[in-house]
Amino acid sequence: MSILDKLEKINKEGQKEIFDASSLEELESARVSFLGKKGKLTAVLKSLGDLSPNERPAVGKKANEVRQFIESVISKRRKELESEALGRKLEEEVVDITLPGKRSPVGKRHLITQIINEITDIFIGLGYRVAKGPEVETEYYNFDALNTPADHPARSLMDTLYTQKDGVLLRTHTSPVQVRVMEKTLPPVYIIAPGRAYRRDVPDPTHSPMFHQVEGLAVDKNITFGDLKGTLEVFAKQMFGADRKVRLRPHFFPFTEPSAEVDVSCIMCDGKGCRVCSGVGWLEILGAGMVDPNVLSGVGYDPEEVSGFAFGMGVERIAMLKYRVNDIRLFYENDLRFLEQF
Amino acid sequence: MRVSLNWLKDYVDFNISVEELVEKLNLSGTAVESVQYPGKDLENIVVGQIKKIEPHPNADKLVVCQVNVDTEELTIVCGAKNMKEGDKVPVALIGAILPNGMEIKKTKLRGVESRGMMCSAIELNLGEDASGLMILESELTVGDKLGRVLNLEDVVLELEITPNRPDCLGMIGIAREVAIVTGGKLKKPAIEIKEVAELAKDFASVEIMDADLCPRYVARIIKDVKIGPSPQWFQQRLKAVGLRPINNVVDITNYVMWETSQPLHAFDYEKLKDGKIIVRRAGNGETILTLDDVERQLDDSILVITDPSGPVALAGVMGGTTSEVSENTTTILLESAHFKPANIMRTSRGLGLISESSLRFERGIDPNGTVFAADRAAQLMAELAGGKVLKGIIDVYPKKIMPRTLKLRANRVNEILGTDLPVGEMDKILESLGFDVSKAENDTQLDILVPTFRPDLEREIDLIEEIARVYGYNRIQSTLPESSGKQGGLSLSQQVEKRIKSSFIASGFWETINYSFVAPNFYEKIRLDKKHPLATCISLKNPLSEEQSVLRTTLIPGLLDVVKRNVNRDIYNISVFEMGKVFRPALKKELPDEPLMVAGAATGSWGEDQWFGKRQSIDFFDAKGVIENLLATLGIEDWFLQRALYPTFHPGKCAELFINNKVAGVFGEIHPEVNTVYGFPSKVVVFELFVSELVSCAELLAHFEGIPRYPGISLDISLIVDEKISNEQIAKVIRTTEGKLLKEVRLFDLYTGKNIPTGKKSLAYSLTYRASDRTLTDEEAMKVQKQIIAVLEKNLGAEIRVS
Prior knowledge:
Low-confidence stretches of chain A: none
Helix content of chain A: 40-55%
Strand content of chain B: 25-35%
Shape of chain A: rod-shaped
Number of strands of chain B: 39
Helix content of chain B: 25-40%
Oligomer: heterodimer
Largest sheet of chain B: 7 strands, mixed
CATH superfamily of the largest domain in chain A: Bira Bifunctional Protein, Domain 2
């Protein structure tokens, strides 16, 4: 057999063996058996020196062709095998994507805090700052300074929680903050005051001895009742939805005049009448009014120079309306199954 | 205040639907709380006539009646005994629903089919009589609806009258409001009294000894009254508004009170000694038996109506039994007085006795309406009780209370309301309210004479409110304040407070809100001694319950209660926090200190065991991790911990947090005894921090440092030291030995037990070295590492393990 024939034979055998290799290992042993130090092709290449100068160029050329060819076949086959191997590996790695995910523990703000934050953000956008005041208050700030008559029933031991110290009580609303802020600041004053308030109400689904209010106060030159309406409308639309309507009904509070109770069109039925609004289409959400001149002069403001409006809303009530929570006591039980819902 | 529209139409004509009226009242300040349709109860109940009564074939106690209801004759089985053939009775037809909710259906009673039901008064809610059928007047037409023939078809409004509107505690006051909102005309009842020749003043006299409490006392004498029931229509009106008919004279006083808002009282004149009324403060020790049969102890703060023998009535609150009108009464002394609101309120509250009369007097009744009310009642006593009204009215009114004059600046109205109302419109509104208005020359100011039935109107602003509510709040244009100088935003401390909450939430804690009041033994439950500062708290004078009778001085008991409540409901993995005030008595200050605290409690593990692994149970280091997260969030770097002994905490697992060398709080595992008190199934960790310390040390502005440009080298050290040596001690030695290249020290293993001698522990640290200006070589890092090892060996007696 001529050396060229031999090379051709090696070429064919090599191709077959490489082609038949079913794993990277087999491919490697095929490579070694042809191209390795003791490989068949290597042996031929090593024997080139024994050839006559006439034969050498042709054989050398052919041998190189065969080597390149086998190498390229090996490389092609390797890619195929590698891709097959990867395919198998990936298949083995398939997971059940329906297994539960690995979640890190999370907590949340209490619903009351969420609502207060929502209200606060709206009023910050309208240029208000947030004020705070003591929860244990004097009768002066809670009642007197707010123009509440000395014999007003709200002052009674039936309605208000008092401490053992005379004239010291748990504030019954966040309104005393108005007075404290005005005493310390000159107009313009634009504040809201969120916080706890207390009344001597026996707990039941709609009453709690402790609850939260957000008080609002704007005192400036030329503040009008129209400004109060406009402000509350902006608030109601942002809080309850752009389609909400607002209406004011005349009411009586000792510390505002004119005073109003404020209704928003029902957030469930949009005013058509449903169970949530007892069929009337409106939900009462807050009390408001123009700051009584007595309150302004009480803090040293001149009611002829400045005027103002104030409003107060119950946070629990808003939360209950918005989320249809049916029992106010749930807010203070802090059952995790309740907290997790919001 | 209940208002019957049938009755109201006596005083005002209006021609709008009930719905419209309700809307208009609501929007003008008279809130309608409910609307009731009393006649609606009697739908499908008609007048029937009993044609025949026969015994029931199968039952002794029942009878079978043939009843004509005009359209047909019905067979009705009945158990009553009081009727006879020919009687007219109410018949509930098939489909009728009785006031108690019972629906009338065709039914068989002991084998006889009954097609309807004849009713008693109580079954129709028309009286108390349950003894038998309600026998109707014989003139009624068979087949007519009972509601119509008895004038029961009415609309009753339940109105919320605000405390500033005593005038609206009478139908005439309501009618005035209705007239304003509907444009109708107010019609006060016309008074016509035929007086007899005898003079009232010859019969009786009135003396006011304490005019400060009783500015006016009006009396009339009506004789020859025949006490008996009031006519049906009259009783019907009283019942419609919730008053119980008693007898004609008492009913008239109630009726006129409801009409005018002026409370009246009728005395049996014969029982008043010498016909003499003396109004005075009670003497200490005096008593009176009031109409509700309670013996009342009096004192000199209480105003009484007396005769020369003693008290006969509690002024403005309730009459006494000795002078009560009875069926034998023939002569009435009718009182229509004015009492000072504050004193009536005091008496009523003091005695715990609230009456329709006291409710009105304590709001402030028109002192100049007394004569009208007395005349009106006298007129009705003549008409309905056959009385003869004696000539003249006894009127003791030492100092007449005059209508108030108020000035109203037109521009002020528009300034406050943001309106552009012309003066003429204001004038019109005020006159519609019944005020006398006169314009000042320049047309910018109005002078208003406010009638005495509106004691609430004392200032210009009160009139502005009247104009606003009558004009209509909802017609006022909405605007926003035009101020230039306002800037919204949160203060620094409010921002930090928000961040604190965010940090705990990110650490897996749920925010809770707990009551500010706790049980007085709260401190015992958390192992505090009575002398512990936190045991001194503010207690309430009038708590709702013992459980809520003192103010909290720490948030921890509230949070432990939350844990307890959840555990009781089979929830065992709990991590909760609260930010809120605590209340600590402050000497020499009027109000207590109210530091804002943030506290948390956690127990169980971070969730349930999962398919990928078990959850570790929460311990001291979870609490510490949460606090480290918080400090990092707030940019607080200058902090350290100190082992601390707090009675509430496990003595070996409790640490005080110091920030800038000041105590900022405490955390740790609660004491096993506390655990037992609460009955927790596993250990609970707790922390409580002063928000003010966190706020004052928080650094919200982060310091930027360039990202390292050269790689670092991490080398591990594993060492065995005495058990008593703390991690902090080791880390400190490591850090202080070399301060330039060493960037990070991280403990990654802690081990005691097998292969480690008793009394020793093994720790392993990873140390990261880096230079900021070049790539560090292994040799440089090794050099420093060797130095550190040498110091650890020397200073802490550490034995370095070669791994």
